[in-house]
Amino acid sequence: MDGLTSTTIRCVGGIAFDPAGRLLLIRRANDPGSGQWSLPGGRVEPGETDKEAVVRELFEETGLDVIPGTLIGTVTRGPYEIHDYACSVTGGALTAGDDASEARWSDAADLSALEAAGELVDLLYVTLRDWKALPRA
């Protein structure tokens, strides 16, 4: 046993940048965090690896094909233990789907404005800053 309780829900997220250095974000259509901007991702389904879940979730929410790489960090939000992976976009067309009402690339100024307006999922900006994963542009 890995020490997690049965109430912990394992989730994954993808940290992806476009060639201009902008960060991929989705606006959550459902709770938790409905209406707020977040990294794309979601629950790991039974029998899935984290990396399989990242590929599936990012495609479902953004229409993009990704290759997950290094684990950047892990956060706990209530019952959700979220493992965020660096991702390389390999194809697809950016479009919101599944649990996302919108999807977009955000530069540094845009991300700061979303944080200032309270439109980011709680502590996302601080977490990305601490992980050195803010947009480069």
Automatic annotation (TrEMBL):
Residue ranges of domain Nudix hydrolase in the record: 7-128
Gene Ontology MF term list: hydrolase activity
Source superkingdom: Bacteria
UniProt-listed Gene3D superfamilies: Nucleoside Triphosphate Pyrophosphohydrolase (3.90.79.10)
Keyword line: Hydrolase
Cofactor(s) required, per the database record: Mg(2+)
Pfam families, alphabetized: NUDIX
InterPro entries named in the record: Nudix_hydrolase, NUDIX_hydrolase-like_dom_sf, NUDIX_hydrolase_CS, NUDIX_hydrolase_dom
Family membership: Belongs to the Nudix hydrolase family.
UniProt protein name: NUDIX domain-containing protein
